[in-house]
Amino acid sequence: MVGGERAGRPARGRARPAAGALREGSRMDSLLYARAQMGMSLAFHMIFAAAGVALPLIMVVADALWQRTGDRDYLEFSKRMAKGTAILFAVGAVSGTVLSFELGLLWPSFMGTFGEVIGLPFSLEGFAFFTEAIFLGIYLYGRDKLPPRLHLLSGALVALSGAMSAFFVILVNACMNDPVGFTMVDGRPADIDPIAAMFSPPWKHQTLHGILSCYQATAFVMTGIHALVLLRHPGSTLFRKAFAVTLVLAGVTALAQPFVGHYAAQEVGARQPAKLAAMEAHFETSARAPLLVGGLPDVERGEVDHAIEIPAGLSVLLHGDPDAVVPGLDSVPRDAWPPVTATHLAFQVMVAAGSAMALLAVVGAVLAWRRRGIPDQRAFLWAAVLASPLGIVAMEAGWFVTELGRQPWIVRGAMRTRDAVTPFPHLAAPFWMFTALYIFLGVVVVYLLVRQLRAAPLGVTGAPGGARAVGGGAADAS
Ligand code: HEM
């Protein structure tokens, strides 16, 4: 992008780019690197944040089952979940802190202009985070010191405050997607109503869909890990119970998510037509709008190649009426189009992964019903292993849809992303530095979690192989 020849003053030898072109070029470089760095940080943080929301719930359910049944396998399972929660909470705290710095340093105009608008949910998110940290400390160190019910309550508060953190941070994003609660005067928000801004129109579908995706993504990973161990050690009592607990969470969320996603799509269609048109690669405003499955949009021609077309499908899905008109990208000025191909592909990936998980949930439910117990057929266990990354894939793709579909705006209709970026010119350096940091953190986390898993006993209630650990060593079954 930097300095084309045509921008330079005529001179002997190579023409030199004009200062203005250089400034514009370096601004585009900054924008590219700032977006890449922010995107990478969020993509990384999201996985730990999702686990931080869902693992405490699994930990508390296992603990409650232990208190109800007195079965020590559940106690062991809840202890393992508590250790996993602690590791992921620490990494989530580091990556979350990086993000809060990045918001101010990479997007100073955004934070400077809209700080008062989005400040309330951000502060509440900080409050929820501290609550989570306090109760996690109490839960981790209070097991033998507190009465069991009080200990369980502290675990439930960890789960609740984790979900509240996600809730508040998604409210910020909802306000960026469809800002209300202020008026723009001379490029700055005035007459700010922080409560109205916090509960901007997309808040219901975004918080519901986003928080559910945390439980779903984590439950699928955990189910896959437990299924893998069961394939190697079918007699493990602990892993059978752990598999059952996470499978129920995975199944329920996978069946609920398509309905919630459908509601989200209807809401987006009603208030963010450009995002919906990009998601569906719907170029021309039309009645009886078709639903496209797959396909590669050609933005220049305004057509989609290789898609399966369901006539009037989009009109029916959005409005329940085949004759309903659905606004296309042609209803939006060309310079306000989101990146159509990336948004459409991300949407297709999310829906495909969501459908595959829902299908697996149905198969699991049928097998469980026919067997009147845990569906532990080897083929099903393998399917659970293969499906384990799908929740994370769908979650990341969904976040791409939300963010890319809002472009070119950082706050829709109020500030463009390119006007929010820092003018600091050397953003390549922090980008590569943080990439290295995230790779390092990722490797450390995987190492610690695998170590945890290998140290886990196969069962503490008299499983074949006694308290042998997954990794083969002696287990600490205390
Ligand atoms: C199966 C059908 C699904 C449909 C129809 C659907 C629909 C949508 C729509 C319309 C959005 C954009 C919301 C907005 O920008 O306001 C979205 C975002 C998102 N989706 Fe999905 N989705 C589906 C499945 C999934 C699954 C399975 C997951 C993850 C496990 C997921 C995770 C997300 C996330 C994290 C976002 C961004 C946060 C948010 O806006 O709520 N989605 N989805």
3D architecture notes:
With 478 residues, this protein is mainly alpha-helical. The chain has a domain at 201-423. It has 14 helices and 10 strands. The protein has helices at residues 19-69, 72-106, 108-141, 148-177, 194-198, 203-232, 237-271, 273-279, 313-319, 340-371, 378-387, 390-404, 417-420, 428-455; strands at residues 183-185, 188-190, 286-287, 291-293, 296-298, 303-305, 308-310, 325-326, 409-411, 415-416. The strands form 5 sheets. A two-stranded antiparallel sheet has the order 1-2. The termini are far apart. Mean pLDDT is 88; it is low at 1-15, 462-466 and 473-478. Bound molecules: protoporphyrin IX containing FE (HEM). Residues 177, 202, 206, 209-210, 213, 216-217, 257-258, 261-262, 264-265, 268, 350-351, 353-355, 391, 394-395, 398-399, 401-402, 405 line the site of protoporphyrin IX containing FE.
